[in-house]
């Protein structure tokens, strides 16, 4: 099953979910770690370049994933879920999709605004141009500082949403004992309760 069905996610949605989950968690850890290192060390510079490169991979995957998502509606939520739980699940997923774009885009804008004008070369191979920075954000240094705050706030919001997201997945699996987590892992049809 390549595509989603009303009963479960297809292989493509599952592959997007878990490959991006690994990359995004890696990016959160790397971002928090590199931020604490001495900024003049060449090893720190290489980690920043890696952070930027993987961030662009996340952005490209997010574009493809959203496109696939529009063509493939999500499977039905379990009937046992209360209206507020359905609303929270939908709002949480929209928030996660939004942050998959907001993080790389705010990062890209931040490095574009930097007065140091450091080039971004993905994996030392593919140069990426700087974005035009909106004038409303002020002079370069001021715009960079604002965008740093936006990027960090987006990252902390993502951590909070992920705690709720993973908590909800575990609650579905171990407390409600429904198919929610299993169908994001495998395309095999649900076993009957008998
Ligand atoms: C251990 C970590 C994770 C677990 C256990 C997990 C679990 C799940 C499960 C079970 C679903 C299906 C929900 C449903 O059927 O309605 C889901 C959907 C989703 N997850 Fe995760 N997830 C994890 C990490 C992540 C990460 C890091 C992200 C990205 C920031 C993410 C983004 C999403 C999105 C956007 C959906 C909705 C997919 C769609 O309907 O298109 N998840 N997750
Ligand atoms: C999924 C994508 C991304 C995630 C999850 C992410 C996450 C993070 C985190 C957690 C931090 C540390 C924030 C702090 O504590 O102040 C950080 C910093 C940073 N990120 Fe990202 N990031 C992503 C994409 C990008 C991209 C695409 C770029 C640039 C093209 C970028 C450039 C930077 C830079 C330059 C810093 C250091 C900011 C500083 O010195 O304060 N990030 N990122």
Automatic annotation (TrEMBL):
The keyword Transcription does not apply. Its cofactor is heme b. SUPFAM superfamilies: Transmembrane di-heme cytochromes. One of its GO terms (biological process) is respiratory electron transport chain. InterPro entries: Cyt_b561_bac/Ni-Hgenase (IPR011577), Cytochrome_b561_oxidase (IPR052168), Di-haem_cyt_TM (IPR016174). Residues 9-186 form the Cytochrome b561 bacterial/Ni-hydrogenase domain. It holds the Pfam family Ni_hydr_CYTB. Keywords: Cell membrane, Electron transport, Heme, Iron, Membrane, Metal-binding, Transmembrane, Transmembrane helix, Transport. GO terms for cellular component: plasma membrane. It is a multi-pass membrane protein. GO terms for molecular function: electron transfer activity; heme binding; metal ion binding. Belongs to the cytochrome b561 family. This is Cytochrome b.
